[in-house]
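Q: What does the assembly look like in three dimensions?
Context provided by user:
Components: four
Sequences:
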Amino acid sequence: MVMRMKTIKTAVVGASGYSGEQLVRLLLRHPGVELVALTSRQEAGRGLGEVMPRFRRWPGVEALGFMEPDPSAIAATGAEAAFLALPHGVAAEVAVPLLAAGLVVIDLSADFRIEDAAVYREFYDHEHPAPELLAEAVYGLPEVHGDRIGGARLIASPGCYPTSVILPLVPLLRRGLIDPSTITTCSMSGVSGAGRKASVPLLFAECNESVRAYSVPKHRHLSEIEQELTRAAGEPVRLTFTTHLIPVTAGIHTTTYASLRPGVGEEELAEAYAEAYAGAPFVRLLGAGGCPDTKNVVGTNFIDIGWAVDGRTGRVILLSAEDNLIKGAAGQAVQSFNLRFGLGETTGLL
Amino acid sequence: MVMRMKTIKTAVVGASGYSGEQLVRLLLRHPGVELVALTSRQEAGRGLGEVMPRFRRWPGVEALGFMEPDPSAIAATGAEAAFLALPHGVAAEVAVPLLAAGLVVIDLSADFRIEDAAVYREFYDHEHPAPELLAEAVYGLPEVHGDRIGGARLIASPGCYPTSVILPLVPLLRRGLIDPSTITTCSMSGVSGAGRKASVPLLFAECNESVRAYSVPKHRHLSEIEQELTRAAGEPVRLTFTTHLIPVTAGIHTTTYASLRPGVGEEELAEAYAEAYAGAPFVRLLGAGGCPDTKNVVGTNFIDIGWAVDGRTGRVILLSAEDNLIKGAAGQAVQSFNLRFGLGETTGLL
Amino acid sequence: MVMRMKTIKTAVVGASGYSGEQLVRLLLRHPGVELVALTSRQEAGRGLGEVMPRFRRWPGVEALGFMEPDPSAIAATGAEAAFLALPHGVAAEVAVPLLAAGLVVIDLSADFRIEDAAVYREFYDHEHPAPELLAEAVYGLPEVHGDRIGGARLIASPGCYPTSVILPLVPLLRRGLIDPSTITTCSMSGVSGAGRKASVPLLFAECNESVRAYSVPKHRHLSEIEQELTRAAGEPVRLTFTTHLIPVTAGIHTTTYASLRPGVGEEELAEAYAEAYAGAPFVRLLGAGGCPDTKNVVGTNFIDIGWAVDGRTGRVILLSAEDNLIKGAAGQAVQSFNLRFGLGETTGLL
Amino acid sequence: MVMRMKTIKTAVVGASGYSGEQLVRLLLRHPGVELVALTSRQEAGRGLGEVMPRFRRWPGVEALGFMEPDPSAIAATGAEAAFLALPHGVAAEVAVPLLAAGLVVIDLSADFRIEDAAVYREFYDHEHPAPELLAEAVYGLPEVHGDRIGGARLIASPGCYPTSVILPLVPLLRRGLIDPSTITTCSMSGVSGAGRKASVPLLFAECNESVRAYSVPKHRHLSEIEQELTRAAGEPVRLTFTTHLIPVTAGIHTTTYASLRPGVGEEELAEAYAEAYAGAPFVRLLGAGGCPDTKNVVGTNFIDIGWAVDGRTGRVILLSAEDNLIKGAAGQAVQSFNLRFGLGETTGLL
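A: Here is the predicted structure of the complete assembly.
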């Protein structure tokens, strides 16, 4: 006899994009979840297996279909939690009524990641649609804010790039091992990060055999990266950050440089990481000289982190790899969901 | 009546690798070249079209085949110039007798790039095999050393990464627009850069859907990069440089950061580039905000350079893209060859 | 309180190749399996997470390492079942002592797939190493031989191509809906099918942006394909079959043509498939006009099958897609294992 | 002194798609061509180098820009020839006034490939827009209709798939070596074949790691394939033909099967090919057992053809590879242009 875990009735709002699809994949197999609503303006009325043929014949799929993203209809399903995989701006509009209806909201958009509405406006080019909620939103990076996620009503799940930049830096900034004014970062992302939208620059024939930087010099994700690094450093942090599109479907690799404080060496770095991530089930520390490879993390919620001291220049080189749609989006959101509902951090993710 | 250009009898030594193949491709169509010898230890005795089926039926191919890399046999063909596409260490051994036999040698290996034999030993882990030749070797980067190439007997053609790192930096270092102690660089290369050798980590199934850094923190190419940046800056330059393998066959993208000297802005940068590369037919300046894409340079000898000022941090972001096998290897070698033999810099390359 | 399924002590012999890796992945998460031995001549003595970094931090991985493929040492672990992911010829040599030691053997090589030792010799160019075992070996295609797998001591798991060719044809041949003398097949496979071995033609730079046929006209897998089609048709079947290498890591797509018997139309085809695969949890029938896409099956044990009547020529077009390493290898082997040990066909596979 | 070839003033109408881009690439370097007009509704008013950055700094590019596709404006440039790289239906509308203005028209669309307007309607779902021109249009496959191209006013350049299917079959059908009722064909194409249009199914993240058939069972190209095979066989030919999308940018591989007439063997096949393509500079015969690889033809106007006799079934296996945008589109059109204007078949193409 198997005793089933208590299940949380859950909705995925905006389930037809790439992050939505990964949410559905993870939640279908999550022993603590009952999927009660999938929404998609475009696919409303169609069955899940019809829209996403890869899910056909999975247990539980036949009963599932897409509905309109109507907040009261979502609430009427009895959903206790809703994941929002919507464009920024739109997400906040849906979050407000869902919160009012008593749901816990885990938002994968940028809408509630930035504490300061002025910074949001600077980076996203419009007024924040629900500034009154910013104070209570929790930045859903479990390895950093795990203690605050448990009681949250509104979780702002981090961006894909920020996760890969913040996690390698936080332990070093907290201990003052690096000079925060010297941080420079290069990230490379798979094309799924740009979303499932008809667009010539995202065509196979445009992205294959191609590498290019974009959003130079001020990618929107800088806003949340700097917010979190500033918090860790205890002083304002500004960094240079460039994103590149490379021909893989999934995966982000981030390489970061910073000058070490005098006297800091491999031992201090190893100690900082070991202590910071001792209890983090999804952070895999590859150690000094370890070079993460996206193919080892794609399809999982792991982030792999390696580092090296460049003795010739006094800098540290930080390397990280994650699946942009999982640890960088859907998986991380589920990880926060697990913490929020007391389900065990790794449930449905290993 | 068409008057043919005078042709130089030319050998390609080590013609069966990826750089060798590009040399053959370019030289077959070069109006100033008569290919008189192709060597390959492994393919000796076989026809060119048999070993490289893509060249079958090209004009002139049927008569060509591979011979052993025997210097006296090469000299006996009447070759006036030899391109060496051999591993480091081996190249010097072949260069010595070919130079002695009166040939001009254009070496694509690292053997003659480093002026200081001690630096060579530090980075390549063995004694330099022909240190007496280092003084006369010319670093074959035509945009920087064009004036010295014309009279050279021994041209050391630059590495693929160094070309993409040095060309964006030299104009800024020469004018003192950036602080040389703040340079950090990220490069991403296609897999052909690792050569045509049986190796599990280079298999399709290992490289596809994968990104990873390698040779961290001290890639061998740092030695020539720092030599050339030091020369341009007029003071010692040390930088942090990381190479990444990405799933494209050809192409290198390099992103470099450096702190601007106080008061330097877009105008000074644009002026520096315009002046430095006014006469450079293969440098395409994309201007401020321009983001090069490897797919626009692959198959050509162009390097595309863009830049952006990150006003928030006072840094400049430099972006460059080239074909690692052409501007990063075979094409650049032919460009030097053209200068050496007075054939017009772009002959056979446009 | 959760009552655990009874677990079978299991060994994977030859665990360091691509099929072995998928076996390890599936068995690590299989609730009815306790992995007691992983062997690899090359990796003996190393930890699983060290050799395959993608498995680091998975539950149960830390205790696992590779040992030499010594049959008595394998038997001494108490293993009740062994999966063999070894080259043909080698597999039989290991199977004999393991069977003698009382283990159930599930062999992923070709060694026990062919009932007739003469056919084996014709296609594999050497004498069969253990012909005395051929009579009792069961061809482990659960959708066809499910009833015989339950009692088998030696299961010969089918090849990747054969699975994709046989499953779409068997229902039509059994009912006599097509003319067996008219079958022609084109298969396209990802590069992982060629194995994890250092080889120039399998390099990324050789396979990317490339499509080519190979093993023309007599691929070894024809032997088992024809054996099974002959069995289904009740008369000798010979077909033309060509395999192509395409630049994907995983996945096989097979397109098959055959002339329909007079009077046969879409209705008869649909009925034949519905009846044949009503109880087959891993066969997804896309129906008339359905075009399977490998990306919907990669990472799963599903095979997707679609078909279309070409009324202009009287032929049927059969389309199938599977993951060559899962339904085409490791997943199918686990499916047979489940049937053999009465664990529920889909255990650990959905 | 170099005497220049007489140049033909030439227009490319619809120059911003993938075929248009290849036309521009080839014609820019064609010694017998002066490009006088490039049209694109979408890009009118912009410079060529701006729209297609890969052409920046090529000789002659700076002066070129896009104009509206207005036939009288095109004629006013003095153009003697126009290549049309437009969607079917649209091409005919532009061809009529250009022909009236005295230009030679080389149309890369399907509009003038089908001699029978009823067949056109059957396959293209609309009435033919200019049926009066069908009688004089020449199917621009130089290896088959070379003798008629020289005097043509309107050349209908073949489709990408048809070129790869027709050329391997015509020599065998003409000599009656195969049974025309038994032909079955599988083609695999790179994604550029679908054009440069915003479309979700053509996104990198949808095409990468994916293989799928499409337009089953009646691809539009069947109409021209069957027309030409019927002509070669001297009797009506119907075949089964399936197209597959694979993750390469460029390249088509086609595998065709047919039953050999009794007594036909390798010798007769070799002889048929040798005789048919003795004077064809772009057909490379790989011989019996030769397996073409798209990577050997991509970027060129070659088509590589191999074949094998499957003695077990009495069928022949035909294999061909071409660049879908060059021999399958732009290159073949230029080849016809060369024949039409007496410039030497290979001019600008080798």
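Follow-up: Chain D touches chain B at residues 1-3, 53-54, 56-59, 209, 281, 284, 286, 293, 295-297, 299-300, 302, 304, 350 (CB under 8 Å).
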